[in-house]
Every structure is written in C-alpha cells, then in structure tokens.
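Good morning C.,

I know you're traveling, so I'll keep this short. The sequence:
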Amino acid sequence: MSSDSPAPVDGHASGRPPEGSTFSPRAFMQMMLGHGHGGHIGMRYGDHGDNWVELQLPYSENLIGDESSGVIASGPIISLMDNATSLSVWTAMKAFRPQVTLDLRVDYMRPAAPGKTVFGRGECYKYTRSIAFVRGVAHDGDPGDPVAHVAGTFIHVENFLG
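The tokens, ready to paste straight into the viewer:
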C-alpha cells in the first residue's frame, strides 16, 4: 500500500483509529488558551462532532483591520479557520498527529460585521496516511450568509517532534 493510500474518514490506514485513541478539541483549546496565537487573539472553543470543530473569535478592538469601519482584519479570521480545520483532522482521526498546513484557500464573501463574534466551523471530510482534506465556513451569526469559505489540505509530519 502506498503512503498516499486512502483511509476512511473514521480511521487510519487500517480503516479504524488505534484502539483506545481519543482526541478532545475542547481540552486542546483549553490548554492553548493560556498561550499561543489562538489564545492571544481570543479564540474560543465552540462545539464539535465526529469530524468537525467549531471555534469562536469574539469581536475585539485589538483585531480591527480598518479603524474607520471597525471591521476585523483578515489575519485573525484566517487563523480561526486554520485552527478549526486543523482540529477537525485530529477529531476525525481521534488522535493527535503532528501536521502542518499544506494549503488553505480562503474565499472571502464579505467583511464580518463589526461588534459580532465570528464562528469558524472546519470539517475533515477525508484523510489518507499523509494528507487530510478539509473545508469550512466562517460566519458572524448566520451560516447562510458566510464571511468566508475555506478549503485546504494538511500534511502529516511523522517524527516532527523528535
């Protein structure tokens, strides 16, 4: 089997997660809130399912990119979606594996409304031994009126931490 052989979204190359594997996006975000970029910009855990994670980015004057309009800069929204989609991979795999963002395409539909929390929902819809495929949406209260759509890939980096 090649290193890029597909695995079902609910498992590793064997078709299922390793026995006893678990990953909690809620616990991971609680750990990260005290430090790191997500904590610095005020990102919060929202909810999750089997292969998706929703995070929140409460409005903050520190995140404003255009002072005259009060609109949040694009960088924090990209970070929100990068984190939500990354967490969705670990959630789908039910395990933490070192990975990096290979590609994250962001299609902005409109600016987020000033004063509103931005919600970012990321979904891992497929992963292989080395690549995970994700999509997501950012909105400020109405998922039917998105701020942005994202699509991307993450690459698993074995032995990355030593």
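Safe travels,
E.
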